[in-house]
Specification:
- This protein is an alpha+beta fold.
- The chain is 18% helix and 41% strand.
- The chain folds into two domains: 189 residues, outer membrane lipoprotein receptor (LolB), chain A (Clam), CATH 2.50.20; 133 residues, MucB/RseB, C-terminal domain (Phosphorylase Kinase, domain 1), CATH 3.30.200.100.
- It contains six helices and 20 strands.
- Strands 12, 13, 14, 15, 16, 17, 18, 19 and 20 form a nine-stranded antiparallel sheet that branches.
- A hairpin with a 5-residue loop joins β10 and β11.
- One of its GO terms (molecular function) is antisigma factor binding.
- This is Sigma-E factor negative regulatory protein RseB.
Length: 361
């Protein structure tokens, strides 16, 4: 089997029922390592009740509007806009969004989910464990009065900030900050209509709904016994919050979601090998030699890493900075040294050694 690379496309409207796969979610707080970065923050969390109310309101309140989604790419914030409509009991529809990543995996097309301000209960549990979550006065978002909640790291630096509508408890805006206090990612409503007057859900077409089916702990254990690597935790602050599986022409593809409370890192695992043809033609990806193996890398906007190891292909999708992405990659099996580009690199090394020997004669 050949697992293809990622290609940029436009997101089709889709019900967003899997909250943990949403892109509250593919956004980690951008931060360089601190002295206290490897430990959770302490203190009384008096802002969690507002966020849990926002989670509940997001499920039971009908609304529609336009969201602005900004992410740092190449040192600058790049902004896209999306139309979003939520209907209780029906789901959430997103209009097309340019620039989201797609990974062809064993004949399947796996999309990073559309952006969302909606917090999931498991995500909020992780947020409470890892950050000091406090109320921080009031502000405005989408021309509405909002209550502000901050998530702080152990050293006191603000990692994330949330704006919750004072009237409806709907989440209106979220910002993620780097170590220097810069905005690294934000999602905000620029226009919002609440209630039954909002537009109906967009018609469903093409790929939609949940990606695959949920994997139970017993099913994950069975796969692990068959040689699959499906970690319960990638690091101290990135536990597994969701696991799903789908079947392609060449067998199952597993999607693992890990959250620090502010976001989710997506990891896709499948049996197979990467060929130079399938990955080399992937838009924006380049081979990087690490520890004698080949990792295919793309850091333009949403970061992607693909590599093969022990008969499996691993794909990581995240908006995390290199320091966090590196931690994620290190927690998974390292790349094989038998990849195409690794062999080419070793060929150049042998050629250079031979030239050196000749020159020294």
């Amino acid at each position: 089997m050949s697992a293809g690379g990622a290609a940029h496309n436009r997101r089709r409207p889709a019900p967003a029922l899997l909250f943990s796969a949403l892109l509250l979610l593919l956004v980690l707080a951008t931060s360089a390592p601190h002295a206290d970065f490897g430990r959770p923050a302490t203190g009384t969390d008096d802002g969690m009740d507002l966020l849990r109310s926002a989670s509940a309101a997001s499920r039971v309140t009908a609304f529609g509007g336009v969201q602005a989604v900004s992410a740092r790419s190449g040192g600058a914030l790049v902004t896209e806009h999306a139309e979003v409509v939520h209907r209780p009991g029906e789901g959430t529809g997103y209009a097309e969004i340019a620039g989201r990543s797609t990974v062809k995996a064993g004949g399947l097309v796996v999309n990073a989910s559309a952006p969302s301000l909606r917090p999931d209960g498991r995500i909020l549990d992780a947020l409470e464990r890892n950050y000091h979550v406090t109320r921080s006065g009031s502000g405005t978002a989408a021309d509405r009065t909002a209550k502000v909640v901050e998530a702080r790291r152990r050293d006191g630096a603000v990692a994330g900030r949330f704006w919750i509508d004072e009237r409806t408890s709907l989440p209106l805006r979220r910002e993620i900050y780097g170590a220097a206090g810069e905005v690294t990612h934000s999602i905000r409503f620029v226009d919002l209509a609440v209630g039954t007057g909002a537009e109906p859900l967009p018609p469903v077409s093409g790929e939609s709904g949940l990606w695959g089916s949920a994997l139970t702990p017993r099913e994950r254990t069975r796969l692990t016994e068959q040689g699959w690597t499906l970690p319960e935790q990638l690091s101290w602050n990135l536990p597994l919050v969701d696991a799903r599986s789908s079947h392609g022409p060449d067998g199952p593809v597993v999607h693992l979601a890990y959250s620090d409370g502010l976001s989710v890192v997506s990891v896709f695992v499948q049996r197979g090998r990467l060929s130079p043809k399938s990955v080399g033609t992937t838009s924006g990806m380049r081979p990087v030699i690490e520890n004698g193996g080949t990792i295919y890398v793309d850091d333009s906007g949403e970061s992607r890493r693909m590599w093969e190891s022990g008969g499996f292909v691993y794909t990581v999708l995240t908006d995390a900075p290199p320091t966090i992405t590196g931690t994620v990659v290190e927690a998974l099996p390292g790349p094989d040294g038998s990849g195409f580009w690794a062999r080419v690199w070793r060929g150049f090394e042998r050629l250079g050694s031979h030239i050196g020997d000749v020159a020294g004669r």
